[in-house]
Amino acid sequence: MQLHHVRVHRSEENLAREDQLAWKIAACAADPVAVTDDVTEMIINRVIDNASVAAASLTRKPVTAARSQALAHPRSNGGEGSTVFGLVPGRRVSPEWAAWANGVAVRELDYHDTFLAAEYSHPGDNIPPILAVAQHLATAKGLTGRDLVRGIATGYEIQIDLVKSISLHAHKIDHVAHLGPSAAAGIGTLLGLDKEIIFQAVGQALHTTTATRQSRKGEISSWKSHAPAFAGKMAVEAVDRALRGETSPTPIYEGEDGVIAWLLDGPGHTYDVSLPQAGSAKRAILDSYTKEHSAEYQAQAWIDLARRLHRAHPELVDGTNIASVVIHTSHHTHYVIGSGANDPQKYDPTASRETLDHSIPYIFTVALQDGSWHHVDSYSPERAGRADTVALWNKVTTTEDKEWTRRYHSLDVTEKAFGGRVVITLTDGRTITDEIAVADAHPLGAKPFGRAEYVNKFRMLAADVLEGSEIERFLTLAERLPELTAVDLGQLTITARPGLLPTTGAPMGIF
Length: 511
Description:
By secondary structure, the chain is an alpha+beta fold. 44% of the residues lie in helices and 8% in strands. The chain has 20 helices and 8 strands. The strands form 3 sheets. A 4-stranded mixed beta sheet has the order 6-5-7-8. Strands 1-4 form a two-stranded antiparallel ribbon. The termini are far apart.
């Protein structure tokens, strides 16, 4: 890895293009280095993982709306169009709209992979836009599965490297501002574009995807699932414009009126961003981790701990036995999904699913009472409104523990942690204390996810929406990802069982 120092430059300093972060990202994307076998295997896992969560969300309202928008934009010129999750492979739409519809499907349940450091991210959000472009141009450009693997490896690398180095949330900027550049870079790698074109696309993608974090605050709306899809769509459009010779605001990161100067830490601050040196493999995907449960990543370990406590202490199932529950955890967990957020909606039984997904008091309560977690049932209005659940829920609070905050931000993967310690005080005066560092599915957890677990997750989530033959067809294709031909790439999607999608309706808008 090579460390790059990034700061604001006054206009008269005339920062050379080769010294700008966007150019260094472009150079990394244009480097023709091979993808290692272990990275290729993990990319296959994440393609399966994305399809899993997309399948489970096919009938949900935001996904239905995004799909209907995509269908209003049929195959565009210059290629064969791109597939949309749920539809037959022959039904093609314009690639930017496929990136939109599929991106919403992947993110809707908050159930795919994650990487957390200085910033937060779901790097699997890179896959829909890169795959959409691959399908659209597969025949015209002679693209193969190996090209797609290279593009995805770049998308993960750039996003994770930015997430390690540049905090957006500290300035209330949504984390998808790192996704626009990474997806644009990934598309550049996929298509074998030169550095100049990728540079312009990265700048445009960043410029158009900076937005506030209000989409993840208070009464959280369905835009939470649309935000990364929008970034992916903007990345596709940015590459298209750059290919046509159009340019971007420059320098986009370091400029006097650029992103760092006015949206982030401002003049005088330096960011240290590490990117792979020329000729070095892009391996960042191996630092990321997927979810066993449909909930904010910081809730994963807490669900596992709650399930463990449910089994070990049956008396905790009856909330009248509990006087208080205090969760000692990291700054992020406390202030974003805990009681430190000061969001009354996090204790509201009528709150949206998106809000409950970001409420650790709710999630811990339900997992403790049920000893399990379900991506639909655990969020149902009936489940959230249960009187005994509401009573216990209001006894659960969080507090920041400096040591867990330090471990959260540690760059040492052996001590980096997303859990904490819980202290449960019973009405009889006894206390039960337990702790967990990482989720069971984490690479260092009790039951790390491997290929078998990714496949099982797909089978479980797809069982009610895909026919058995379709499940097997997709898995067989996905597991051959590097070997896929241009024709095969067009089949890398999932088709809902007959009659399922018409039941969801097609909401009308402008298109």
